[in-house]
């Protein structure tokens, strides 16, 4: 019997706008409206909005909430204060990545975690099993909607004040109360608006009335790949470690957390393989799972509308991971040349 797909509070509005709906992580989600290319360009040049209400939200509260999270998350929460957020990893005993997420410090005893939709249940169980007296983990996902408004004119169109990345504040947009989180998954300026589920449809309508373009998951995936943000389940998994994935920067190896010792050992000896960004030198679109000559594999690939060529991420032996290293990718049985580039693949100043 087929599993019934969950729907976000904005489902009917997507259908009314003519979005093409597809299954994603157990949800029925819009993959595109006008098309991936115009939606990518809207975000890169002006502003676009994504329904990301399928993401999970946990509240972690109590006098020992910080202690629990410091023992389970890779980054150091001591580096942030209330009103600030931090990108971090939930790691297993092997140093593998259970999920990548953002932690928001609401106050000294309360945090909000926004996690990937596909990992919501696994993340919650992992944290719940490790609760300590004085800490409480609650899944509050169903209470909220989440709208990601991204692009160089996003803040202007929303009428919000300037603020630093990875900060957040309570605000209202046209009378609708929400939390404006200065975070996102596109490499552009913008924010993610956390709103009560019942207010999400009204907020979506107000955002569109302000001239923001509705965008689907197809554009979101292309945008994040252009700036080398990893996708959990493809580029990073419970079987890949943060050092090999180039995420050592968000692991404080001076503190103890799940898998910290294993990550120290990987860092000390050097990873055997590394996740690298690449650009195709021949006309071809790389896709997940395609072999890279020498024992590598593509984990994410697409056509970049901004660069007009194929781009991707993939694991390759450390010896061939340097910038400008030549790669040969098996694209449906045909060898196609590519080369390793610096992160991010797309840079506004060079491509504007």
Describe this entry's structure for a reader.
It is a single chain. The protein is α+β, with helices and mostly antiparallel strands. Among the domains are: 127 residues, Gyrase A, domain 2; 81 residues, Aminomethyltransferase beta-barrel domains (Elongation Factor Tu (Ef-tu), domain 3, Beta Barrel). It is built from nine helices and 19 strands. The strands form four sheets. It has a six-stranded mixed sheet. Strand 16 and strand 17 form a beta hairpin. The longest helix has 10 residues. 45% of the residues are buried.
By CATH reckoning, the class of the domain at 11-54 and 143-225 would read: Alpha Beta
CATH topology (level 3) name of the domain at 11-54 and 143-225: Gyrase A, domain 2
Mean of residue pLDDT values: 97
| Main pleated sheet | 6 strands, mixed
Number of helices: 9
Span between termini: 50 Å
**H and E order:** HEEHEEHEEEHEEHEEEHEHHEEEEEEH
CA radius of gyration: 20 Å
Percent helix range: 10-25%
What is the tally of beta strands?
Answer: 19
Q: What's the architecture of the domain at 11-54 and 143-225 in CATH terms?
A: 2-Layer Sandwich
Helix/strand structural class: alpha+beta
**Judging from the principal axes of the Cα atoms, what is the shape?**
globular
Oligomeric category: single chain
The CATH H-level homologous superfamily of the domain at 11-54 and 143-225: Probable tRNA modification gtpase trme, domain 1
């Amino acid at each position: 019997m087929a599993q019934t797909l969950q729907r976000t509070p904005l489902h009917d509005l997507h259908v009314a706008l003519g979005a093409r709906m597809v299954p994603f992580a157990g949800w029925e989600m819009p993959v595109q409206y006008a098309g991936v290319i115009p939606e990518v360009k809207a975000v890169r040049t002006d502003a676009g909005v994504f329904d990301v209400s399928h993401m999970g939200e946990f509240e972690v509260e109590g006098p020992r909430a910080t202690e629990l999270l410091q023992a389970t998350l890779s980054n150091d929460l001591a580096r942030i204060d209330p009103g600030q957020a931090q990108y971090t990893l939930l790691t297993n005993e092997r140093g593998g990545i259970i999920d990548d997420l953002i932690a928001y410090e609401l106050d000294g005893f309360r945090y909000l975690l926004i996690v990937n939709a596909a990992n919501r249940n696994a993340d919650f169980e992992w944290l719940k099993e490790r609760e300590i007296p004085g800490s409480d983990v609650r899944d509050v996902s169903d209470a909220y909607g989440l709208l990601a408004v991204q692009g160089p004119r996003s803040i202007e169109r929303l009428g919000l004040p300037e603020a630093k990345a990875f900060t957040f504040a309570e605000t209202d947009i046209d009378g609708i109360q929400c939390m404006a989180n200065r975070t996102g998954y596109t490499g552009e300026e913008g924010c993610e608006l956390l709103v009560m589920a019942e207010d999400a449809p009204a907020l979506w309508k107000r955002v569109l009335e302000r001239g923001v373009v509705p965008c689907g998951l197809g554009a979101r995936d292309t945008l994040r790949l252009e700036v080398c943000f990893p996708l959990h389940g493809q580029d990073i998994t419970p079987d890949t470690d943060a050092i090999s994935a180039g995420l050592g920067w968000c692991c404080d190896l001076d503190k103890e957390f799940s898998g910290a010792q294993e990550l120290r050992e990987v860092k000390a000896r050097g990873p055997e393989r590394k996740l690298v960004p690449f650009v195709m030198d021949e006309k071809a679109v790389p896709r997940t799972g395609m072999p890279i000559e020498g024992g590598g594999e593509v984990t994410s690939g697409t056509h970049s509308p901004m660069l007009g060529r194929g781009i991707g991420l993939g694991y390759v032996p450390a010896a061939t991971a340097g910038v400008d290293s030549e790669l040969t990718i098996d694209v449906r049985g045909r060898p196609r040349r590519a080369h390793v580039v610096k992160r991010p693949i797309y840079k506004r100043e060079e491509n504007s």
